[in-house]
User: Fold this.
Amino acid sequence: MKKSAPMVQLPLRVCGRRNAPPALLLHGFLGSSRDWLPVARRLQAGHRCLLPDLPGHGRAHFPTRPELYSFTGAAEAVLACATEPVHLVGYSLGGRLALQLAARHPEKILSLTLLSSSPGLPSAAGRAARRRADDALATDLETRGLKAFLPSWYALALFGGLRRKPELFRRLLARRRQNDAAALARALRGCSVGRQRSLWLQLPKLNMPVLLIAGRSDEKYVRLMRLMQRQIPGARFCVVPGAAHAVVEEQPARVARLLEKFWREGSGRKPI
Assistant:
């Protein structure tokens, strides 16, 4: 019988006291564990924050392990970062991975927070179209490199809030340029929402406390996450002013306060 390859350990930053309640925070596409540091430093007095680099991002390069760049492979690698049940938090791509883990391993999740994220595309035709689009983007990233790719990516309407904050945007672009274009292209193909099974039907089955967060200017995800809230028993939803899609970067103090309040109070539909 062929042995399965051993699970790798993702590069991991840790903030907070060793014996504090653990929180696992997942970044989005093009990001790294560093994106969560402004939030984690505000949480570390009461929680131990685990910040992994997702496969293909930051320091997480696994050229001989292509399975880690699939959606399922990346999710299982994330799960290996936690040795006990955690408060699971995910932004964008990280939110899709977090939702997959909450659906498959609910016993490992104390609570679930999703920021600017979705359960995937419900139709096969929509997923096929998105696979083609993301494959084309990955090829463009490989061909032109990060320096040329990043301006076109951040020209998307989703990131208008970042462009209105020039100094924040400059620092973010500098971090993004430290990634590897080929590794990111593998992650974009393998973790495309077009290759993710739809998790809409799993939402009513979630049995842990759930918080949903979107930036007020991110109209697409405000609508989407309101729909998600209606499907998830007891879910809370918070719209963050002064932010669009990149709510973690734009409003880290507000995000940290929302997480602290949510973890302290538990589930329910009370306004935050």
Residues 112 and 263 are 10 Å apart (CA to CA).
